[in-house]
Amino acid sequence: MATLWGGRFTKEMDDTVKLYQDSFPYDKRLFEEDVEGSLAHCKMLVRQGILSEGDGKAITDGLNSIRDDVHAGKLEVAGDYEDIHTFVEEVLTERIGDAGKRLHTGRSRNDQIALDMRLFTRKKILEMRGQILTLLSILLQKMKENEDTIMPGFTHLQKAQPITLAHHMGSYFEMFRRDVTRLDDLYERMNYCPLGSGAFAGTTYPLDREYTAELLGFKAATNNSQDSVSDRDYIIEFLSDMSLIMMHLSRFAEETVIWNTNEYRFIEIDDAYSTGSSIMPQKKNPDIAELLRGKTGRVYGSLMGMLTVMKGLPLAYDKDIQEDKEGYFDAVDTTMLSIELAGQMLDTARFNEKRMADSASGGFTNATDAADYLVTKGIPFRDAHGIIGRIVLYCIEKNKSMNELSLEEYKTFSPAFEQDIYQAIDLTTCVERRLTKGAPGKAAMDQEITDSEEFLAGEKARTFQGIPGGEIS
Ligand code: ARG
In the beta sheet, which residues pair with residue 192? Predict the structure, then answer.
């Protein structure tokens, strides 16, 4: 097998050890990043007079030819190599000879992988951010379409007060809004270049680390070289951000499952995002929503895995750190697919407005408003609460809704009731009167929608070191 370090060894590596320690099966995914970093490193070495112009050109042409061949499908990123760095360097040296062996001057695989992982992370943050912006656009659209769609709001999964579907969608808009800003913060914090930190103690070559950082679009070079090769905080942060995104998707998924039940029927998931049963012909199951919920567990697992890998690691680089990849890549892929599918599922779903309105009028969701009505008639809220509680009990016994009680019946509970009670407990009135900031009443909701639109436009226009951060995905 190809390694970059055979000199002081007298024996071939044991086969099982090789299986255990080779990272090529999964770090080959970092091919693009590895080449990009090598091109920048080479350019800087030439500029600093560490490499000759001739070697620099040979290396640059060689790396570009490798990249082109991989893109064209003429060269496969595969074979018996220890890792992606070995693959690139070996293929380069096969192609251009000795100059290829000079590329690693002033560099270690420790700062090389630290760079590759940062480049990968940076790219994925922007892609994921773009996906969430798409999801936010879909949510915003649903908000605009459903300002008058009355539904019951729930606490303890019990019908509580009437709201609108726009208001409900707005809750998810807020969750994913926070997720976008978290990714923005992370990008700013992690956008520093570790290349040039060497194995961990820097190097004696006169590298220009700021120049490499600039070439690769980083804000600057990282500081302490020991920390630079062993820091994986940004991976843990990204995993934590993804865990929150998945938690939000999972809550949305759980509601979708509930709303899709035969009992609720608030939502009809499009056939393209549902599955059937092999035995029960009538079934149309919300598998995608269930998988969104289930895959959340996997992403949390990767976060816990990575926190545990890093715990107790002495400085600087230890091979444990190589375990930063598989769970992380899986989490990134899982989260990105999940965001995309959740958006599509929502976009294509149909909401059953009638079911929602009927459900809202069935469960005493206007009881709070009835109590508030009595307050306007001078009754203290605590007493009003007790009166309405007794009315609800009465209605349950009589199997009636509050709208169906006669004024005479109302008056047996309190003389304060008058004809205008019916207007006060009408669901539309109940929603329309909720006008505090963030409430579902139309004027408040209009404001929330405007605010959400402005947020989305601002985020779409945002750039990161010159890279447009809009819907990149
Ligand atoms: N495959 C290694 C990793 O992913 C690259 C760094 C190897 N460094 C070393 N000293 N063995 O972390």
Answer: 220
